[in-house]
Amino acid sequence: xxxxxxxxxxxxxxxxxxxxxxxxxxxxxxxxxxxxxxxxxxxxxxxxxxxxxxxxxxxxxxxxxxxxxxxxxxxxxxxxxxxxxxxxxxxxxxxxxxxxxxxxxxxxxxxxxx
Amino acid sequence: xxxxxxxxxxxxxxxxxxxxxxxxxxxxxxxxxxxxxxxxxxxxxxxxxxxxxxxxxxxxxxxxxxxxxxxxxxxxxxxxxxxxxxxxxxxxxxxxxxxxxxxxxxxxxxx
Lengths: 114, 111
Description:
Chain A is an all-beta fold. In chain A, about 0% of the residues lie in helices and about 55% in strands. Chain B has about 110 residues and is an all-beta fold. Chain B contains no helices and eleven strands. The mean pLDDT of chain B is about 95. The interface of A and B includes residues 45 and 107 of A.
């Protein structure tokens, strides 16, 4: 148990669907992140939130829309996705966005777009 | 742009052997270097974090070293066990938690 919980663990969606991924942390952290892990590619940072404010958008297409209502919850809203968006989406959190604080990762949501 | 490379991509060794996983990075302006473990279909577990001012960190049978000037880090695993089988990822932290990951080394320890 890492303290970072992601739901659902698996998701299959059509290209016209709208779905959301949820991440919750009970570690008292103030920074949260979305990462994408595609087959045969390194983990890629997508978004960074620090104290509920988005501080980084790593050139992510607008069909991915993050939301951070409070420091404990992070969502990734998905719409009009493409098959190449199929990947493992990982959420992480850290005490602050200080680069020398350890990041804790969730188990991930395995997304398949059909 | 920072690039992180891990060699080999896969490694299979008999139980009990000591082994070394390699990680190289192109930009030495890093805050730290982190090693993670990922089990199939699972998230990442942090193993060791080496600050840029440090040369090595140890945790149990794991020892990680960092040589910023040459852009290299190694993860040494002593007396390997089947439970060590997993994918090991290294990540260079550029700033504000911008982790740049390598593609990982898939390690298999054979009983």
